[in-house]
Structure prediction request, 754 residues.
Amino acid sequence: MDALFTLDTGAGFWNPLLWVLGAAVAGVIALVLYSLGRRDYKPGTAQAEPFLSGNPEPEKGLVHVRAGNLYWGFLDAMEGYYSSIVSLHTGDLHDYVLWYLGVSALFLIVVVIIG
Amino acid sequence: MLANLPYIVVVVLFLIGLATIVLKRNLIKIFLGIVILESAVNLFIVSLGYREGGIAPIYTNAPGTLMVLPTPQALTLTSIVIGVATSALLLSFAIVIWKKYGSIEIGFLRRLKE
Amino acid sequence: MITSFIVENSPALMVIVPFIAAFVAPLTGRVAPAVRAWIVGGAMAITSAITLLLASDVYAHGTRLYVFGAQAATQTIAPDSGGIPVRIMFTVDPMSALMLVITAVLAFAVVLYSLTSERDHTGLGSYYTLFLLMVTGILGMVSTGDIFNFFVFLEILSIASAGLIAFRIDGGIAVEAAIKYFVLSTLGALAVLIAIGIYYGQYNALNMALIAQRMQYTLLDQVALVLIVAALAMKCGAVPMHFWTPDAYSMAPSSITALLVVASQASLYGLFRAVFTLYNVTLNAACIGWLLIVLGVLSMVVGVTMAIPQKNVKRLMAYHAISQTGYMLLGVGVGLAVLGNQSFLSAFGYVAMEGGIFHIINHAMYKGLLFLTAGAIFFRIGTYDLNRMGGLGHSMKWTMVFFIIGALAIAGIPPFNGYASKLMIYESVFAFNPILSVIAMVVSILTLASFVKVFHSIFMGPVLPEYKDVKEVPRPMLIGMGILALVVIAFGLFPSIVVDTLVAPAAHALADQGMYIATVIGGGA
Prediction:
């Protein structure tokens, strides 16, 4: 773990090999804990089935949480931001061109005034 | 004033091209705006190399040494060739859009958004 | 004998080999598609080998010059030209060499992948023609030392890219994306051409080193600078000129999208080259630096927040590409903002630039990998819609592993490569302005959140009934992804070696304008 493998980031350092070593140790500990689990269950009986408040297990397609339902809370909380930023993406070619020309003009003003 | 005439024409052509791109809603017209813009840039480059009273830069039997610059002409030729390829590709896109969407108004070109 | 010939002429060969192969490939496709596959794969392997050879030569012996049509390849100034470099030349300095390495590795992996993923499609002759022309365009763009030549390769690249974006017409939607890309990129290229005309009119030069030497930073130069910076920032997808990026990236075939990432990085290279080599300290470094930083921060924030609600997996990844480009603009922008100040530069400026440049190579690798995994999923289930996916981890185990590697790398999780470059950016930018650093970290967290969503909805969950017959993708596609995954892991485990050998020389070559001028002007006479 000499200087060859240590990345100097100016304020600190980063040595991935040390990190991997630490991760390996953590992994070994996790494996040990995992191996302490029960082995005396009976496969094929209700012991191995998921417990859904005693209800029968629904179809496979219904169990999966689809992408559209994820982060609903985040999107809802940020609705003010999203309603404005999404509506900027109009898909209209004129808007694309106007944004480009507008930013060019803005840069021109800034650069010419400040120097 | 007269020496700057080509540059005035360049600016006018450039603005016409930009206005066509930004204001027209028909794809063909927008593409023509791009072609006008290309002509403006070509005229700009070729007029950079012009020297008043200069002759074509061919050294064999040249009557004098005052010649127009050859490099901008080479640049303009290259740029014209690229412009032809660009227009051809854009117009072929317009053909496909007309076949698939049934219209070449850009108001219909909004299936990809957000 | 033959090896020395190849090494000597490598800058010309790396452009001419794919260029010739581009037009040979469709002819051989008439004989048999297998012959064409071998020609394309072989040409790309040769190109990559030559490119890597050239890059290693540059890193070992310094900047390589290649003057076309001169008596000697390094004779930049012809004896009868009056001390002016008149010929077109390639100037391959360490920064160009870094871009060459990226292009060589990624393009080779993509060819391996697309020879299998595209084999059942029609029109493959022109597909590979355009593909190889794209490679030609990128390689030429990043190695040329002549600014008009840069424009020509830029146009080769954008015409080929537009053709490929529209390639799978898909009811016209792909063509719509191509129109949006191509109109904008033509406008951008024309702006670059006007800037070239301005330089020529003022300095009678097209050679970058000569323009840099004569640079006065007059009002016209400021106009030219803005034209170039705005055009190339638009082409690399910086917010608020990014609107074409998700459209084009999501509609192109996946292997092309991976190459489009490199194409965008080549535009970013052009931007950095213009700002650092053409202008350097003559411009108001703080002003332009802050412009780049503002673009970078906007790209990071808007890119990642727009990615979170996306439903199309490639559109989501495209928004992440915008967001990651922001990191590069931020890192290099900080380096530019302190350019004139040697103490700031050595305290954090160089580290920031190294971080930004390291992020370019990392981003190309993991984002290319992610787009290829998206393509692999599309190859088997035929949709990009996240709402219709699920449970694929049971059948596509290798694809899942590669996706995990790419996703962790882009989110900046140790020990993958994204973490190393992001850490360099965080720490150096913190010394410049702590708020920017905090924004960068928050964006990284949102990136992770977004990829957790993608991972969950594609791979997790029970096997869905509609996908119970799905198999793993064929082996060549896995090898293509595997190359990139190996690079991601290797760069993550040994970042210091990569930074010392590849990135730091590139950053210093970029910042040191005097060296660039001296190599070209003072070299051959």
